[in-house]
């Protein structure tokens, strides 16, 4: 056999079968004997512990009954001491007997001689006599009916099959029992030791799997016996032994079943590894290993698959990053080209105007009147301001993209900002601007120069792109802790997809209006960056009702 194995190397499945046979059958058989022996010892200890516990529970029930009754009788005796007439005392006693079925009789005895009349009850197991002296030398005698006590004494052990007997401490007469058996009762008495320990549950008896327990009480003068019957022993030991044997058989079949599943899943995953390795050897570097991962998958297989996939993912990630960088480079080139075109185109117009009017003012060969000089200087000033705004727009872009904007946030009245912004707006066509914010003195928390730049951009865009002979409307409303300033102008409805792109750099709507106006396409991009940097929000709307509307949400200064 050794020679056979030396010539032929076993496959994984064959090795698993051989190892499982020797690792399962022999250990399970030995373990079964050991477990059964340990279980029998454990069950025997459990039977003894349960018998002791039941004796203590019955003892506690008796103590609780005795203490509650004793306390109640003491209370009745103390209450009777306050009554000053026999009629009231008897009325009180009658009321107690009427409301409590426990008392067969409740009476007041004037002397000890009359107490002897109640000695007959002491020999009756169904009744007990309790006597309490009163302050005036009389005695309160209570005869208690033990019927309810016997019914409730074993209520907590209703489902237990052990035999329980409560006897009187002196003459050993039976007071109460549970699961009474004549043979069991005799066995419990005959094996009872002569000298009994007091107030302690003690195991006695000759059969180790059927322990007997006694507990002799001194306070209640009672003897409690607990007999573990044959049925209890059979359930605790024999039934458990059968369960152990059945469990071992089930475990053996389960192990073989699990080993079979393990082997099949192992083969599936190994084949996946083989296929991936072959694919890599053929130049397919994007091949992933898709393991059938579950509790049967070994750590090494998962580790190999994970590392292999990480390697492929890293290669793919590098490719994606390279592609992204190329895209960014392309966008950067487009941005540079757009910026050059925009700067060269937009800057040329104001520079040409400035240059032309400056040259005109510097000419010495002609006389220029004062009015012409003032008009020329106004043109130069307006074009200079336009050039300045365009330069500021270009300079603020890197700060917005790098989150390097610095603000001096302070409370600013909204109406002041809107009025100054309207004044700075270039409105050559004299379009009507309806300012509904002039009476709003609400203060916002913003940077004065930057928020002014925002509204100048928005109002100038509205003037530039609105339909002819239509007004620009500036409204406001309060929403919670923010004020919403809206700039509206009449315009054709802009599609939602196009509306979303208006915040991008160098984006303009290509239509008849934008073709006749000039602009860099940076206004809304800059406005959005400035508003959000000042903890605000900006939204665009375009509907039939409002045309084109920009809403700026700014936080209200909370004094």
Task: Walk me through the structure.
- The protein has 559 residues and is an alpha+beta fold.
- Helix content is 55%, strand content 16%.
- It has 14 helices and 15 strands.
- The protein has helices at residues 2-7, 12-80, 86-99, 119-122, 147-153, 182-190, 230-281, 299-362, 370-401, 414-424, 448-465, 496-500, 512-515, 523-533; strands at residues 103-109, 127-133, 139-145, 163-168, 174-178, 202-204, 212-217, 222-227, 410-413, 433-435, 443-446, 472-479, 482-489, 537-543, 547-555.
- Helix 2 (12-80) crosses helix 7, helix 10 (414-424) packs across helix 11 and helix 11 packs antiparallel against helix 14 (523-533).
List keywords for this structure.
single chain; about 550 residues; alpha+beta; Helix Hairpins; Heat Shock Protein 90; 3 domains; 5-stranded antiparallel beta sheet; 5-stranded mixed beta sheet; 14 helices; 15 strands; elongated
Give the helix/strand layout.
Blueprint: H1 2-7, H2 12-80, H3 86-99, E1 103-109, H4 119-122, E2 127-133, E3 139-145, H5 147-153, E4 163-168, E5 174-178, H6 182-190, E6 202-204, E7 212-217, E8 222-227, H7 230-281, H8 299-362, H9 370-401, E9 410-413, H10 414-424, E10 433-435, E11 443-446, H11 448-465, E12 472-479, E13 482-489, H12 496-500, H13 512-515, H14 523-533, E14 537-543, E15 547-555
Parallel strand pairs: 10-12
Antiparallel strand pairs: 1-3, 2-3, 4-5, 4-8, 6-7, 7-8, 9-11, 12-13, 13-15, 14-15
